[in-house]
Amino acid sequence: MSQLSIDDIRVLCDAHPKPLELHFQYGTAGFRTLGNTLDSVLFRVGILAGLRSKRLDGKTIGVMVTASHNPEADNGVKLVDPRGEMLEAAWESHATVLANAPTTDDFLHALDLFVRNVKIDLSKPARVVYARDTRPSGAALISSLEDGLKAIGAEARDAGVTTTPVLHYLVKAINTRGTKESYGDDSEDGYFKKLSDSFKKLVAGRPKITPLVVDCANGVGAPIAAKLIKYLGESIPLVLENTSITTPGALNNACGADFVKTMQKLPPSLVEVLKPGQRACSLDGDADRLMYYYLDDRGYFSMLDGDKIAALVAAFIVDLVKLAGLESAINVGVVQTAYANGASTRYLAKRLPVKCVPTGVKHLHHAAEHYNIGVYFEANGHGTVLFSPQAQETLANHEPSTPAQSTALNHLINLTHLINQTVGDALSDMLLVEVVLAHKSYTGVEWNSLYADLPNRLVKVVVSDRNAFRTEDAERRLISPSGLQAKIDELVRRYDGGRSFVRPSGTEDVVRVYAEAILKTQADELAFRVAGLVYDEAGGDPSRRPKEFL
């Protein structure tokens, strides 16, 4: 490591000691835990980001400090690769090893091994752009990150306080600047212009859009949405709620996309705001998830989750491809996980190919890349649409033969600019939904009537070792413990429209049980019966068996 300043790294590493009793794990969401324990992790991530950039010939790497929909006390950090995508999976284990080196000497030794094994040319430049959300612990963690960037000699750019999707956008825009694949101007201003210009073109000539209430989860989506409003002008009236980013404890508290999805009810703060017949949406803490909902004319709440968004958007895109005369040149597909409601899968499968993959954005994103246009949304509201380079080239070169084809083609081209293809983006997805609603003249009621969700229930079972539970078939079937899947199959057969699967959590010693059936009471009963099987299989004490586990 002759080209690294070991003395500088040693001094700065000593200033950010690792808590000896803690183990850190880099997963799909990066590192995520209590914010006040992450000082050493952020320092080491700064060094890792610099080395990732060197390994990729000086391309700019992104670092986002956020814990998304988690409680305010939590924080986290994740790396963003040059195309705006998640960190290459093989590097997750490297991140975990470096973060857990107990002492400075151990860290320097691990660093030396890492540089040798991955064959990093230390003479290459290191470039990193970083940002954070509004969490109180964010500023101190950014300072730790900056020490790491300084130690590795990285050329660093502070993107300030912004959303996760804006940071992903910036990374791709920086790395494609001046090329024919240019993603846009590498600034917040460029992001806002790209979204607002394409949105205005897509809704031009449509009836005036009625006001949309936006729950900003008291997070970073609030200031970014407020800036976006200025660019959107009169094209859509947005009413921002839950914008208290400096009120202690307010972030994601009884509001935001995760609250709505989990509790399946209106955030209490909107009870006096939302009127019967009006629609609304909730962002999460870093604005990469989106949940829609509305009150019907009688004031009853109805939720429109990621499955409903996928159905709305995919059907719209399929129609546009047909109208543009490109049905034989562009294939459109949808990617879901086992958590997708069975009714949504059946609705979509009648219209286009549907693929099921294991839970996790990296699996969805990768599978969506296999289509010319790939739509993916998790039920939790995280998702986007990917247009392959081939699809974008087809759109650019296609010569329409009728005015109708020309109109549809222009709509598709504008969608490639409206949609943030790097990652799920609540604000971009919100504008996408509003485009489809405007084109279809749908209210929330009409959108919701595309299909009726099957009643479902999600139950969590605490186990001593989640690794004893292994799955196959995109996590829809268990292969161990031996014999348990057969017992689940036998139970499922007793319920109309029954479906259930069991999968271990990726972050804690719990097993999640999902069940659905024609009736709500049956879905609940099936979930609890399967949970009982899991509890018994895991060696649970019969005397302490939760009473609801039938």
UniProtKB/TrEMBL annotation:
Q: What class of enzyme is it?
A: isomerase
The record's comment on cofactor binding reads:
Binds 1 Mg(2+) ion per subunit.
Q: Which Pfam families match?
A: AMG1_II, AMG1_III, PGM_PMM_I, PGM_PMM_IV
Binding-site list for substrate? E378, A379, N380, R503, P504, S505, G506, T507, R512
Q: In which pathway does it act?
A: Nucleotide-sugar biosynthesis; UDP-N-acetyl-alpha-D-glucosamine biosynthesis; N-acetyl-alpha-D-glucosamine 1-phosphate from alpha-D-glucosamine 6-phosphate (route I): step 2/2
The Alpha-D-phosphohexomutase C-terminal domain sits at 481-530
Enzyme Commission number(s) of this protein: 5.4.2.3
Indicate yes or no for the key word Lipid biosynthesis: no
Residues reported to bind Mg(2+): S68, D284, D286, D288
Q: Where is the Phosphoacetylglucosamine mutase AMG1 domain?
A: 206-290, 305-442
Catalysed transformations (reactions): N-acetyl-alpha-D-glucosamine 1-phosphate = N-acetyl-D-glucosamine 6-phosphate
Show the stretches that span the lipid bilayer. Answer: none
What this protein needs as a cofactor is: Mg(2+)
Q: Name one GO molecular function term.
A: magnesium ion binding
Q: Which Gene3D superfamilies match?
A: Alpha-D-Glucose-1,6-Bisphosphate, subunit A, domain 3 (3.40.120.10), Alpha-D-phosphohexomutase, C-terminal domain (3.30.310.50)
List, alphabetically, the CDD domains matched: PGM3
Report the residue ranges that make up the Alpha-D-phosphohexomutase alpha/beta/alpha domain in this protein. Answer: 61-90, 118-177
BP terms from Gene Ontology: carbohydrate metabolic process; cell wall organization; UDP-N-acetylglucosamine biosynthetic process
Q: Which residues form the active site?
A: S68
Keywords attached to this entry: Carbohydrate metabolism, Cell wall biogenesis/degradation, Isomerase, Magnesium, Metal-binding, Phosphoprotein
Q: What is the recorded function of this protein according to its Swiss-Prot or TrEMBL entry?
A: Catalyzes the conversion of GlcNAc-6-P into GlcNAc-1-P during the synthesis of uridine diphosphate/UDP-GlcNAc, which is a biosynthetic precursor of chitin and also supplies the amino sugars for N-linked oligosaccharides of glycoproteins.
What family does the database annotate? Belongs to the phosphohexose mutase family.
Question: What protein name is recorded for this chain?
Answer: Phosphoacetylglucosamine mutase
